[in-house]
Amino acid sequence: MRLLQEKIKNDGQVLSDQILKVDSFLNHQIDPALMLEIGKEFAKRFANEGITKIVTIESSGIAPAVMTGLQLNVPVVFARKRKSLTLTEGLITASVHSFTKQETNEISIAQKFLNAEDKVLIIDDFLANGQAALGLIDIVNQSGAELAGVGIVIEKSFQDGAKMLSDQGIRVESLARVASLANGEVTFKSEKVEELV
Ligand code: 5GP
């Protein structure tokens, strides 16, 4: 998605050869117009899948997920990273290990919002090692719902997540695929699909 690649080039900060900071439009301040375009793009890519629900994880997945839900006209459920006082019964949980934070968190979704009739699209901001996506997939599987695929705003293709999910037969649609962050520069994986968008 060219608009997103331009935004990353112009406003993203390469913190190291592993970490890209995009807090001016995705992870802290949010660019609503860009989020709308992202939602349209995910909706287009999964238009024929019969999606009934979007599942994401708080907090940075919520903005792109809501815009996608708006376009597909389906509800959006976000997994919580912390136990909520009001969210106590009927939880589906999974463990997610964060390599960046070096900690394992339990994430959860209320059972009543996902069931065996659902066809789910998972949306998240970044795909690095794939642990967050695996946790969400675990929750979708436990609920009995069907997984249509995973939509990622920024995939860091030099890390293991994308390949690991594809090897499991999971459809992964990433709107920007970063091949390298070496030398303080963002290099995208060039692809026909992205060039056409
Ligand atoms: P994974 O579980 O795929 O290793 O990492 C996914 C999560 O880690 C993302 O949802 C995101 O919150 C965070 N993350 C991983 N890499 C980056 C990065 O380069 N930049 C930012 N801002 N977040 C990242």
Structural overview:
- The longest helix is centred in the N-terminal third of the chain and has 14 residues.
- The protein starts with a helix and ends with a helix.
- The model has no long low-confidence stretch (mean pLDDT 94).
- The chain has a six-stranded mixed β-sheet with strand order 4-3-7-8-9-10, with helices on both faces. Strands 1-2 form a two-stranded antiparallel ribbon. Strands 5-6 form a two-stranded antiparallel sheet.
- The chain has one domain: 3-Layer(aba) Sandwich (Rossmann fold), CATH 3.40.50.
- Strand 3, helix 3 and strand 4 form a beta-alpha-beta unit.
- The protein is an alpha/beta fold.
Q: How many helices in DSSP terms?
A: 6
What is the number of beta strands?
Answer: 10
Percentage beta strand: 25-35%
Reading off the top of the CATH hierarchy, the class is best stated as Alpha Beta
Overall average residue pLDDT: 94
Q: What ligand molecules are bound, each kind once?
A: guanosine-5'-monophosphate
Major sheet details? 6 strands, mixed
Q: Any guess at the CATH architecture?
A: 3-Layer(aba) Sandwich
Return the structural class. alpha/beta
User: Which geometry do the CA atoms define?
Assistant: globular
Q: Which strands sit side by side, in order, in the main sheet?
A: 4-3-7-8-9-10
Distance between the termini: 5 Å
Rg is: 16 Å
**Helix and strand sequence:** HEEHEHEEEEHEHEEH
**CATH-defined fold name:** Rossmann fold
GO molecular function, one term: xanthine phosphoribosyltransferase activity
Binding site for 5-phospho-alpha-D-ribose 1-diphosphate: 128-132
Keywords: Cytoplasm, Glycosyltransferase, Purine salvage, Transferase
Family: Belongs to the purine/pyrimidine phosphoribosyltransferase family. Xpt subfamily.
